[in-house]
Structure formats: C-alpha cells, structure tokens
Design a protein that fits this description.
By secondary structure, the chain is α/β, with parallel strands linked by helices. The chain has a single domain, classed as Aldolase class I (TIM Barrel, Alpha-Beta Barrel). It contains ten helices and nine strands. Strands 1-2-3-4-5-6-8 form a seven-stranded parallel beta sheet. Strands 7-9 form a two-stranded antiparallel ribbon. Helix 3 packs parallel to helix 4 and helix 9 packs across helix 10. It starts with 23 loop residues before the first helix and ends in an 11-residue tail after the last helix.
Amino acid sequence: MKKETQAAKNPFPFSDSNKRYYTYDYYLKRTFGGKCVKIPLDGGFTCPNRDGTCGTGGCVYCSNRGSGDFAASPRLTVKEQYDAVLARMTGKWPATRCIPYFQAYTNTYGPPERLCRLYEEALALPGAVGLNIATRADCLPDAVLALLAEFSKKTVLTVELGLQTADDATAARIGRGHTFADFQAGYDRLRKAAPRARIGVHLIFGLPGEAQADMLQSVRQTAALMPDEVKLHLLYVLRGTRLADLWQAGDYLPMTRQDYVETVGKALTLLPPSTVIGRLTGDGEAESLLAPLWSRKKIAVLNDVDKWLYQNDAYQGKAYAP
C-alpha cells in the first residue's frame, strides 16, 4: 500500500504542498501564474527616527543601509539597480516576472512628486507585474495616501508597514519612534484611502526584553487587523548596529533556533488562514552577521517549522479567533 504523504494529509486549504501555511510562493502562483523575482531597490530615502523628526540613529538593529542590504547603490537609477541585482540573481530564477521592491529605509518619506517618479520608473521595468513599498504607518500623509490609491489601480500594490512589536515599551527600547496606537491609525487610514492595496505587516521575534508571550501577543493584535500579508523576522545582530554593542557587552542574548521555531509555529496558528506569509525568518549579509550564526541555515529553519507544525497537528489559523 502506498504511504500517504504529508502533503496529502495537510489540513490547510491554501496549500499545494506539505506547507501548513499560506506561503508567498502559493500566493504568487495564484496571482501571477508562477514565481516572480522580487528586486530590492534603494530610493535614497531616510527615516523620521534617523533625521531627528522623532529620533536619531534609527532602530537599534538597523544597518546603515536601512534594511536594504541586498539592494544596489542608491546612487544608481532604478533601472540600473534592477540590472545590477538581476545580474546577481542570474541562474537562480528566470526573470520573466518581477516585483520591484522599495525596501531600504522609509519609502513614502518624501515629496509625493518624487515618490510618483520613482514608482513609475519601477513599474516600467521589464516584466514588472507588481510593486512593493516598505514604509512606516506614521509616514502616510494624505497626499501620499492619494498617490498609493492611484498606483493600486494600476498594479498589484503591496504596502509593507514595519510594526515589529505591538508593545510600546519594547518599541521605545528599540527606538521605533511611534506607538501601537499610531500604527493602528496609519493602518486604518491606508485601508480606507486605498482599499485595493494589499497591506503587509512586519513583526520581529527576539526583540530585547520580550518573552515568547509578548511576541505572541503582538501576533494576536496583528491578526485583529486582518492584514493581507505578514512577514515574520528573526532578530539577528549585524556589525555596526547599536544592537551589536549590546550583544558584545553581554546585554542582549539572541533567540535559540528551537525557541524561534516554536514561536513561529505558535504564531502561525494565531494568524487568519487567508493572510499570506511573506517570510518566516530573516537573513542578514554573511559578512555583517554576528549572531545567531544558526540563522544562516535558512532552509533548515523552514524545514524545522514544517516539522513542528506536523508534529503538533498545527496549521495557520487553527487558533485564530476573529
């Protein structure tokens, strides 16, 4: 008798594999018909918690590229950045479809005219089928919301909002520069102004001072917003950040692989089953990564999450409470 596979026994509806959560790959297949290459771009922006508006120095973990470490130089045009990144990816993925991704710093933090020009240039890239814009919920003035609404009519627009944690004490500790109430207000204004835009929310596990219960509470509060997408990140330590100073002084201890896998597994059960999971862990540049070194084994970590879900008869949304 043929042995039944994990995929065949998978209770999660939005999957065509053994994955018990709504993977980004599955979303891409359903939306665009196949895999897309996401092209990280640096629009040359800054952040309000760097330029003195609400703080200086940025978030405690942020590199000097503003989380855009895999993008090309902001001195290049959008097309030149696209070509440079694509050249690095040649042989990895066929570039028949691409999603330009303004990733570095806060990509709605500038004059609407400049934003419009950059977004238009990105959509003109060969094979562009969508547009992703990473920003902060407190950087969405009315003029920018109107611009995002217009672009959501032109393409599949995803606006990614960095929440990281719903706990205001932790947010102050890491230097985020706005409260959870500020985040909710920005989220609601975006949803109302641009109903066709997809909204993604970023959460980080392992922030200084947070226990697993704190992280899962942030997940519950995020789930209540019904986001279209959620990205879960591991907090890793990069050279040259304030977090690196804390780690080197013995004042910060990264999560263990086992604790991270368990936290991710439990988090998935709390999220709506219709929410796309954009990622389950982060990966820093190898030459800049200080800790935890196990984070380099990204595929192994993803496999561990699959095993945890299977062994615990768990899947995305199982414990979700609308």
